[in-house]
Queue: 2 jobs
Job 1
Amino acid sequence: MATFKSLKISGKYKSAIELWFLIITLSGSLQNIAAQSKHVLISDTLDPKSIVNKTIEIREIQVTGNLKEANIKAGSTGINVDVEQLKQLPKFAGESDPYKALQYMGGVSQAGEANSGLYVRGGNNDQNLILLNGTLIQNPTHVLGMFSVFNPDLIDQMRFIKSGMPAEYGGRLSSIVDITTINRIPEKIKIKGSIGLISSRLSTQIPLNSRFSVYASLRGSYISSIILPTLSLLGIDSALTQNSYEFWDANAGFIYNLAPRTKLTGHIYTGKDELKIQEIKKYEINGNSTFWQNTAVGLQLNHIFNDDWSMNHQLNYSKFYIQSTFDWYNSLQDVRSQFDNINYKADFFHIAGNHQFKFGTEMSYNAAIPHFLHNDSILAVEVNNKHNTIHSTQLSVYFRDEWTKNNWQFNIGVRANLYAHIGPYTNFQEAGNVIYKNNSIIKTYSGVEPRFYSRYLLNGQSSLKLSATRHIQYLNQIPVFSFGIPTDLQIPASLFVKPQGSWHLSGGYFHNFSNNSWEFSTEIYYKTLENQLEFKNGIAETFTNNMIEKNLLVGKGWNYGTEWKLSKHMGKFTGWISYNLAWSYRQFDQINAGIPFLARNDRRHDVSVIGMYEFNNRWSFSAVFVYASGSRLNLPLSWYYIDGNYVMEYGKYNAFEMPAYHRLDISANYKLKKKKGIDSEINFSIYNLYNRANPFQVYFSSKNLTMKMQYLLPVIPSVSWTFSL
């Protein structure tokens, strides 16, 4: 980013004319020139006698852009995702979602129907660090994963890191998604919005003066009141029409330039989902009613001391809460889970010659309720409503140095952690409970995470990249059900649960050609996984055990694969093709006789084909085709009827593969003529164009002893109107 301050233009102009004119000549490597000033041409003349001396001072101008060779020269800080480009992809029910589009970026497996989870290089969904302005987002999905919690009108930058993670990031094994909202003060009031068939949104930015501005947004759905009755009238037979889904979210924030080199920003997010599913046949569950809520609040203070020193402070709070009520074997169950996080982080950045140093510290406090159950009747098994809230604290310090010498770039760093499970806590035992007092230290864990990344420029169009990094994760989520409701139990490292660990090795070749209009890359990777968790017993044990952390199996895993990507980002037609070939294994002594087995999220082949075409100034078109091998399932091979009971016989664990997942989405945008200062466009889109019946569930029915599939999303056409002024 280049910044021009107090730019003065001298020339000879007619004294009666208030005119200023600015010409900026930049290389093709910069784009998106944003000037906070008005251009007004009062008259035009060729008379040289009309020119007089005139000096005019204008406001600051910021010039931002991306290097053409960004993919070749990009360092360990990952890639800055082109948010505006992702907004051009086909919209689901008229809603653009750059976060969900990360599934098409390569190295990320398709999550499946109604799921916007990220499964990066064989990792689980909870192994991704999702940040909104530095605040942890525990569950980033709305309505069975159809949408993410991030309002696209507020996203300013989105960084995605899947390998070579620098030392300033920690706490997760697979990837980093770092999203920041708008952080510049606009010159005038801005309003953006969209009206669609499923949801609508509205956002605004209001400058109160040259140093202070506020922004806010509101988004909500009306799926149950409009779209589901319409699908029923059209005769579409889908599980979607039997259920109800609604969501809303809101954002607010401010930007305050305390001084020319000091900025204070604040942000608050809250959102809620409500879901009702009439029947979950696989688990004999009826009348499910679930709601979940995210809350995120953060403050950031950034100060630039001089050209060589700067610092950033963050104070954040986040909360995720879920409550699910359902009828299980004629017994009304009420399951609740909650996770709270308070985090403070201080970063310092220093440039010394050819070296860029970054160091800092991070402190956090967490409170997790893995399981909280009420019931209104007596089951065949005894329900114990006693439970623990797991409290923990963590202190991390990090240091990294990045420098470039000739064709080489290196980023070497280290991150050190000290984690403690603290009281109050009760270790429930038959012989007598062990009670730990408030703030007492129950169990500690520590770890060191070395990070190494290097890049070598072969020439102006090609580079090689290599990384080796160590990661430790103290916060875990384990899914209770294998469907889209986020009924994941929050189980941090504690007295009976060790932290996860991973070594991640990655290497790749990157090449640009045809004057940098085409990009090609291929990467290989290998990841080890330590202390992976699975439930020891079935759903009954999960719902009735007052110490979930004692009902876990501990194993290990490893993932490896290769990724290929070819993209075109210049011209009327742009897009990319990505292909992943991957293997994901797990090994538990108590599962599959200790023999390694394929993980649930193992998908051998994953293909994404994206195309965008700008026909003219009015019309643009886009399409997305995705294909992925089916995920793994553990189903019985045969069953027997013995003494009035059905006995299931299983073969190798996760030996079954779901049918392949594939679909085609198309979209057309038409820009309307500007009227009364309003820019707007109409979007026409079709989700799942050829009505592919992608399975939402595959399960064994104990009632009629058959395998069954449940489908969710049929072909869904939509139209929406997006506007800004």
Job 2
Amino acid sequence: MKWTQALIPTLKEDPQDAEVISHKLMVRGGFIRKLISGSYSYLPLGFRVLEKVKNIIRQEMDAKGSQEVLMPSIHPPEIWKKTGRYDVLGDVLIKFRDRHGREHVLGPTHEEIITDLVANNVKSYKELPLILYQIQTKFRDEPRPRFGVIRTSEFIMKDAYSFDCDAAGLEASYKKMYDAYCRIFERCGLPYIPVEADPGMMGGSVSHEFMVPSEAGEDRIVVCAKCKYSASTEVAACKPRGKAAASKEKPLPIAQVDTPGITTIEKVSELLKVGPEKLVKTLIYKADGNVVAVLLRGDHEANETKIKNYLKAVSLELADAKTIEDVTRAPVGFSGPVGLRNARIIADIAVQGMANFITGANKKDAHIINVNIGRDFEMKEYADLRMITKDDGCPACGKPIEIKQAIEVGHTFKLGTKYSDALGAKFLDKDGKELPAIMGCYGIGVTRILASVIESNNDKDGIIWPLSIAPYQAIIVALNMDDKKVKEVSEDVYDRLSAAGMDVLFDDRNAPAGVKFKDADLIGIPIKIIVGAKNAKKNIVEVKDRKTGAVTEVASKDIESHLKFVRKK
């Protein structure tokens, strides 16, 4: 492609609404343009990268015996109601009515649809195992689209689904997809980390997320350099510590202290001149409509995934002010376990060993000091309910851990029979017995891969695309198109490489050399072929590696063989 014939609207300045480097560079490089919040057009450069990512996905999925399908984006709500997810997803579902008044749902994912498809078309164990996948646009009413294409309301996903006769079959299918994911992310040039994860609203047992460490990520992962343990902070276990030392403290007399208008851990700690670890905060939740009080050490963060899983709740949300006043008889900010009424109380395991701690007094503008479990209130339920911190040891080996921000690019689940039971995806086994298919689910955020690659591969000048998914593998930078010899050599190199099957962009603009160099670096083409007047006279070009900056002089007639060697490396 010649630049003068292409749509590549590069920009000198960052867009004002861009927060992360991938968003800035995708807009500045002419890869995307925003239509509305959470919805983007992919321009030719962006589309080319998308298609190369899709091709890699297809190659690896097909290599594992998967078959591609394409399912509708418009779904009947009845099928979502059968699994209960119509209510679970709630406002995330984008719903509309057609001219006949019928309600429809725009697909945020396709577990229900694929299960219904298989239920109506697969009847015997002889037709299993089966793995089907699609690459499809999904729709979710995101409350806060952000970070460019990392979190959007409309996005492209690859979702695959396995159907097996038994647990051993699911294990084999799961391993196939896990291995395929590793190959896909390696080929896309992503520094991915597979981590243990929570299945969430998908359901099932075993789950892994494929994470790319990045400050732009909305997720956090735990990594142990010693034993290679890795997990999402949502599931990383916290072990009890310090119980023996704390239990040796002699109980002191309980007392109420005035804390006028002071409702935060930080402010209470400051007023009473103690560290936040001496406080116990009481968080009031509603779990499936039931009021639950969760006790946590003041310096710890609630892990709502752990709380929800412990309670086996479908929904979990912080209680409203009225509910808090009903159970505490006090406004928000002064809740405590002493005298709490009409609420189930559960405490994090780190609270179990505490003595003489500080809590809210269930009274406006007051807290209580020297609170002790057993003497001042009873506790029957303890569980791991908090987020792991960098001060915790590795859940597997006890050694120091690192907590990193990360972008989720893939997620795999062992679903079991949740969907096949609800939607009747059953088969006859070899004894003629009817059984539900055992399912697995495997998703990849296709559009999110682009942003993740850029977050991991950039410098002060722009993007550095891996050769495998770059919009073009090489760019020819003709420094002066008015020079007859420069034009001749540039066009010869372009024709040679195009004939050899290489993706080449030819910058044939009558623009200053500085502009061409800046644009080439901005859009991140891996190989830059520079044709200047002096070298052109000798039929020589400079080949520059975008990543390393290494420059090699090559005879124009040898350019195909040279770049074949470069690509093999």
